[in-house]
């Protein structure tokens, strides 16, 4: 009995058949195997197929190539996700141009409760690094199972992956080539870490080069896998703006950080805000509030963790008492004074920010409001 994945992979290798037309074929014939076994005359009757595409489906050697790809998949412990599979990510399936099949290696939950895509310029500035670092750190403090998606490219992408790893968040890189290589090669060590804490995903078979058009094509997966896309920094033109437009076309939310009006690396972000294509955010609290993500219920801290015996009353709240004294404090210095791990303190500061008592500033600085 022939493995059905050979036909599923073969469906993606037909010249002239993209994801949308492949969907039509599946709707018409029921499954991928039927596309290759039905009579040529029936194929030609499918809207958008015609004689030349029907001939391409019958091309000798096509299924042999698919069989070779399946051997690569099995040898490298790669999973395939076909559009009709129950495990196919629901968010991605909703997109009209979702891949009929993609390849995934890793352990991330692609159906995670919260998934966020973070993209931006390849020429990230110190400002962009700080925005990325603080955003992911503060999100991780509240949603420890949040899945971060990006493209493993230079700049914002790899910064997002690395900060997710540093904060013990799962992270998935969407590639513009097959899983037989890593591009750029300098990100190989990060990619290896991601296989243990997330994964790598692509709809390109092995042997596919990282050609420029592939990067634009893969952006639809970055946008489609997530609840929302955050653009950290972007020039006036760039792939991250394409990702933002794709997210909007899928009915997903887009957010961005504002930058100085003369800053070339913020020009695209400022334009997204000006055209009402993206919501303006300055912190994780802004983002969570805008997305209406319900905050997880608190669990009692373990005995090993430092205890903070306070309630919401400002006069007995040690963090707020420090803010009343100092007006603004850097998070690392605050952690030292309170004897708390930064991760635990981030969660406390987030709640105070959501309550409107403090606000976050660049540099990991927090300032009390109305004092």
Compressed to H and E, one letter per element, the order equals HHHHHHEHEEHEHEHEHEHEHEHHEHHEE
Low-confidence stretches: 304-313
Helix content, binned percent: 40-55%
Q: Name the structural class.
A: alpha/beta
Question: How many helix segments?
Answer: 17
User: Total number of β-strand segments?
Assistant: 12
Mean pLDDT: 89
Compute the separation of the termini in Å: 74 Å
Shape: elongated
Largest sheet: 9 strands, mixed
What Rg, in angstroms, do the CA atoms define? 24 Å
Q: Taking strands numbered 1, 2, ... along the chain, how are they ordered across the largest sheet? A: 1-2-6-5-4-3-7-8-9
Percent range for β-strand residues: 5-15%
Protein described:
There is one protein chain. The protein is α/β, with parallel strands linked by helices. The protein is 44% helix and 13% strand. It contains 17 helices and twelve strands. The strands form two sheets. A nine-stranded mixed sheet has the order 1-2-6-5-4-3-7-8-9, sandwiched between helices. Helix 8 links the parallel strand 3 and strand 4 (147-150). The termini are far apart. The model is unreliable at 304-313 (pLDDT under 50).
Notable traits:
single chain; 371 residues; alpha/beta; 9-stranded mixed β-sheet; 17 helices; 12 strands; elongated
Write the layout of secondary structure elements.
Blueprint: H1 4-11, H2 19-29, H3 32-37, H4 40-44, H5 50-57, H6 62-75, E1 79-82, H7 90-93, E2 101-106, E3 115-119, H8 126-142, E4 147-150, H9 156-166, E5 171-174, H10 188-196, E6 198-202, H11 212-224, E7 228-231, H12 239-249, E8 253-256, H13 267-274, E9 279-280, H14 284-291, H15 318-326, E10 328-330, H16 331-338, H17 342-354, E11 358-361, E12 365-368
Parallel strand pairs: 3-4, 3-7, 4-5, 5-6, 7-8, 8-9
Antiparallel strand pairs: 1-2, 2-6, 10-12, 11-12
Helix pairs in contact: 1-6, 8-9, 8-17, 11-12, 14-17
């Amino acid at each position: 009995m022939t493995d059905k994945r050979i036909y599923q992979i073969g469906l993606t290798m037909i010249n002239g058949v993209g994801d949308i037309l492949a969907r039509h074929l599946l709707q018409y014939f029921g499954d991928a195997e039927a596309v290759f076994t039905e009579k040529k005359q029936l194929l030609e009757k499918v809207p958008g197929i015609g004689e030349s595409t029907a001939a391409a489906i019958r091309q000798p050697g096509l299924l042999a190539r698919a069989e070779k790809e399946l051997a690569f998949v099995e040898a490298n412990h790669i999973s395939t996700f076909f559009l009709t599979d129950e495990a196919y990510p629901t968010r991605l399936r909703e997109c009209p141009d979702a891949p009929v099949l993609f390849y995934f290696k890793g352990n991330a939950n692609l159906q995670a409760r919260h998934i966020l895509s973070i993209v931006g310029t390849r020429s990230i500035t110190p400002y962009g690094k700080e925005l990325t670092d603080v955003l992911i750190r503060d999100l991780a403090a509240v949603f420890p199972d949040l899945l971060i998606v990006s493209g493993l490219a230079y700049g914002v992408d790899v910064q997002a992956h690395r900060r997710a790893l540093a904060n013990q968040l799962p992270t998935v890189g969407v590639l513009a080539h097959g899983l037989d290589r890593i591009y750029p090669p300098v990100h190989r060590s990060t990619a290896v870490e991601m296989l243990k804490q997330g994964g790598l995903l692509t709809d390109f078979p092995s042997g596919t080069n990282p050609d420029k058009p592939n990067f634009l094509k893969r952006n639809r997966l970055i946008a489609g896998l997530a609840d929302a896309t955050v653009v950290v920094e972007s020039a006036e033109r760039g792939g991250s703006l394409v990702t933002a437009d794709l997210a909007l076309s899928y009915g997903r939310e887009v957010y961005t950080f504002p930058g100085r009006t003369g800053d070339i690396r913020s020009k695209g972000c400022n334009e997204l805000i000006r055209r009402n294509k993206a919501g303006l955010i300055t912190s994780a609290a802004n983002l969570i509030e805008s997305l209406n993500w319900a905050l997880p219920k608190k669990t009692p801290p373990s005995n090993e963790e430092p205890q903070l015996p306070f309630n919401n009353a400002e006069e007995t709240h040690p963090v707020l008492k420090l803010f009343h004294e100092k007006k603004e404090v850097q998070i690392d210095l605050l952690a030292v004074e309170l004897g708390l791990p930064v991760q635990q303190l981030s969660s406390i500061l987030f709640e105070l920010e959501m309550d409107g008592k403090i606000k976050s500033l660049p540099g990991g600085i927090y300032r009390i409001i109305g004092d």
